[in-house]
Amino acid sequence: MKPTAALPTGEWHTFRAEVQGSSLKLYVNGELMLTAVDPDLRHGAFGLMHTEGDVRYDDVTVNPHTR
Is 2 exposed, middle or buried (0-12, 13-18, 19+ CB in 10 A)? Predict the structure, then answer.
């Protein structure tokens, strides 16, 4: 995330990750926050984690890339 990004607590937030090949785009509340290229990111699983506080996930979906 951008170093200046701070998410208010006590509110729901929307996260979207777009992964195509080795390219990744991460959106938070509809705003593009991160782009990255990782040659090891070709296929596999994904995970959700947090480092502090009480975090809950709801309505998690995974969709295939459409062309």
Answer: exposed
